[in-house]
Amino acid sequence: MTAPLDHAAPRREATVRRDAEALQVRVRRGSAFQAYAVARRANQTVLDVVTEIQREQDPTLAYRFACRVGMCGSCGMTVNGRPRWTCRTRVAAVAEEGVLTLEPLRNLPVVKDLAVDMEPFFEKWRRAHGYFEPGEAPPEDFAAVLPDSGPRREADAGIECINCGVCYAACDVVSWNPDYLGPAALNRAWTLVNDVRDQGQAARLDAVAGDAGCHSCHSHMSCTEHCPKALAPTFAIAGLKRATGKAALRRLWRKP
Amino acid sequence: MTRDLRRRPGFAAALVHRLSGVALALFLPMHFLALGTALQGADRLESFLSLTHNGFARTAEWGLVCALSVHAALGLRVLAIEWLSYRERTAFVVSGCLATSFAVGLLFLLSGA
């Protein structure tokens, strides 16, 4: 039988000494940083560190996570200056000299501490028509899509996005122009442009061709560099530039 | 927060592309003004050109050749990514563009300009 928990007793982890062995963690909380010391553990992830701080040292610390295995895209944070998914980022790989600086994702409004409001991110997903359009009269039969066909391969290249917002936080164009749709929404639009079943292509190409759309991309490739799923939104956006360019030429050609 | 984001080959390429473009845009009006002096006769043009026979103008001329070649090389890279579906992820092509433009600058110097 296990002994009842004595909540009044000081917790061992809460009294980690600030020695060389402990990980020095700086967490941005509003306009200032707060320092914590966390014990180093084997195979420790950055999310483990934040969870340990919240559970053992400071219950007021706000952050967001769900699956802890790189599927849900909830735990994005800025780790030592780089946007990352924290559940799959090992401390040993990123903590230079035992120091970890954690900040919320860039380019999104902060709710509290490390938690950001993802609504602008998903709103742009909708503005880019990042949803399947079956059309007024969907076909009665299944569409035959060969796995090695060109459009299927293009869609495959970008379809594993988990909406973590890391690319959006890494994008310089979003920080310059808050209306810019961003790499994730445009990458999603490109996968749908390559969906032969979709009936809303003209409206989608119009939606992504505006001032805040694909042509604003400067090809800095920060999204492609930082994507934790190793996707390449830069090349998806390049595909949209081609598709919208061709659509504009077709319109010009058909004009009387 | 953004410090690390700037240490990327893509960002460096865009920055050099933009700065070289600004340098060329600043040079163009002066170029046309210089050519415009020819409308007032060969002597006027020659007297204007004689003003450029100094170390500063020669160095600036070398910089201009480098800016033109790097702008062209990085522009071709962007066109290759956007129109030829070239999937380049590494610093290799950006380094190649920079190396090519400095080679062109070196050739300009060796040609005895």
Automatic annotation (TrEMBL), chain A:
4Fe-4S ferredoxin-type domain location: 151-179
EC number of this enzyme: 1.3.5.1
Pfam families assigned: Fer2_3, Fer4_17
Cofactor note: Binds 1 [4Fe-4S] cluster.
Ranges where the 2Fe-2S ferredoxin-type domain occurs: 23-105
Cofactor entry: [4Fe-4S] cluster; [3Fe-4S] cluster; [2Fe-2S] cluster
GO MF, any single term: electron transfer activity
Catalytic activity: a quinone + succinate = fumarate + a quinol
Entry-linked SUPFAM superfamilies: 2Fe-2S ferredoxin-like, alpha-helical ferredoxin
Record-level GO BP terms: respiratory electron transport chain; tricarboxylic acid cycle
UniProt keyword Transferase, yes or no: no
Domain of life of the organism encoding this protein: Bacteria
Keywords carried by this UniProt record: 2Fe-2S, 3Fe-4S, 4Fe-4S, Iron, Iron-sulfur, Metal-binding, Oxidoreductase
Protein family: Belongs to the succinate dehydrogenase/fumarate reductase iron-sulfur protein family.
Quaternary state and interactors: Part of an enzyme complex containing four subunits: a flavoprotein, an iron-sulfur, cytochrome b-556, and a hydrophobic anchor protein.
PANTHER family per the UniProt record, alphabetical: SUCCINATE DEHYDROGENASE [UBIQUINONE] IRON-SULFUR SUBUNIT, MITOCHONDRIAL, SUCCINATE DEHYDROGENASE IRON-SULFUR PROTEIN
Protein name: Succinate dehydrogenase iron-sulfur subunit
Biological source species: Methylobacterium soli
Taxon lineage: Bacteria, Pseudomonadati, Pseudomonadota, Alphaproteobacteria, Hyphomicrobiales
